[in-house]
From TrEMBL:
One of its GO terms (molecular function) is signaling receptor activity. GO terms for cellular component: cytoplasm; nucleus. This is Bet v I/Major latex protein domain-containing protein. It comes from Eragrostis curvula (weeping love grass). Residues 4-154 form the Bet v I/Major latex protein domain. Keywords: Pathogenesis-related protein, Plant defense. InterPro entries: Bet_v_I/MLP, Bet_v_I_allergen, Plant_def-hormone_signal, START-like_dom_sf. Belongs to the BetVI family. GO terms for biological process: abscisic acid-activated signaling pathway; defense response. It is found in: Nucleus.
Amino acid sequence: MASTNSWTLEIPSPVAAPRLFRAAVMDWHTLAPKLASHVVASAHPVEGEGGVGSVRQFNFASGMPFGYMKEKLEFLDADKCECKSTLVEGGGIGVAIETATSHIKVEAAADSGSLVKVDSTYKLLPAVEVNDEIAKAKESVTAIFKAAEAFLIANPEAYN
């Protein structure tokens, strides 16, 4: 029988929430191949203009566990720096997981920085067990936000 699991993650950042959300979430398909080419070889929109219902594809570098993944934007509130996406193809769909969704909210912090909150829920296929995949997923998400953070600190005019 398939089981539904979840994990959460919080990542503090010195970068303001709107800038970090735009760079690390909304425009990550543009930045990822530049900032994390060792992970993401290329990325591009597949459907839509970046709003709810849009789908984008990330093609991974060789040596990564999956060749690609497609994610669909299910919910977006850009003013509140919040979105929810669903993995629709690749990235383990049909191999280890039946469904996977991520809810990301980037909140303003008291120090004019931000706090990234990630909630991920996934349903495993029958007889599949996770071992260190959750730790790897958390490391990957953290790396995305830290790469965007470093880019934004080095480029203070970007994503204002």
